[in-house]
């Protein structure tokens, strides 16, 4: 593990590019609707049932990780949250992802999930949440 000498964040890769904690979680949550805040809290609590996680606010998103980062909240909308799970293969046989795109310059596929209601985090979504968590920890 490498520890950034400026912000003390730990990373698997030496000199990992990161935002050195120039953002805090409140920067993303301020001004959001109560519905969106409840969705975000529910999503994070669902992950905490899978395992220990840390939230890493960056300039443009909230990364979720344990040993490494494995999921990203990329947008907190008026009545939804958008989440991305990177996987090494495209899991196209599902009902939960609204978009699956290859990551340029990588062998990853970003799987995009939009959550409108707490019930959208169903058993199928939990399987992918756990897969993302387990692949990196």
Tell me what you see in this structure.
26% of the residues lie in helices and 28% in strands. The mean pLDDT is 89. With 137 residues, the chain is an alpha+beta fold. It has one domain. A hairpin with a 6-residue loop joins strand 1 and strand 2.
How many helices does DSSP assign? 3
Q: What best-fitting shape do the alpha-carbon axes yield?
A: globular
Adjacency order of strands in the biggest sheet: 3-4-5-6-8-7
What is the terminal-to-terminal distance?
13 Å
List keywords for this structure.
137 residues; alpha+beta; 6-stranded antiparallel sheet; two-stranded antiparallel sheet; 8 strands; 26% helix; globular
Q: Layout of SSEs?
A:
Blueprint: E1 2-3, E2 10-11, H1 25-29, H2 34-50, E3 54-57, E4 62-65, E5 69-76, E6 81-87, E7 99-102, E8 109-115, H3 123-136
Antiparallel strand pairs: 1-2, 3-4, 4-5, 5-6, 6-8, 7-8
């Amino acid at each position: 593990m490498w520890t950034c000498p400026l912000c003390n964040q730990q990373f698997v890769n030496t000199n990992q590019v990161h935002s050195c904690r120039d953002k805090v979680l409140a920067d993303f949550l301020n001004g959001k609707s109560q519905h969106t805040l409840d969705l975000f809290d529910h999503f994070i609590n669902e992950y905490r049932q899978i395992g220990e996680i840390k939230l890493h606010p960056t300039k443009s998103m909230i990364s979720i990780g344990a040993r490494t980062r494995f999921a990203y909240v990329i947008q907190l909308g008026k009545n939804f949250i958008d989440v991305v799970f990177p996987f090494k293969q495209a899991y196209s046989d599902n009902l939960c992802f609204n978009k699956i795109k290859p990551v340029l310059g990588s062998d990853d596929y970003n799987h995009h999930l939009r959550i409108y209601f707490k019930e959208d985090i169903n058993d199928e979504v939990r399987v992918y949440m756990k897969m993302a968590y387990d692949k990196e920890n």
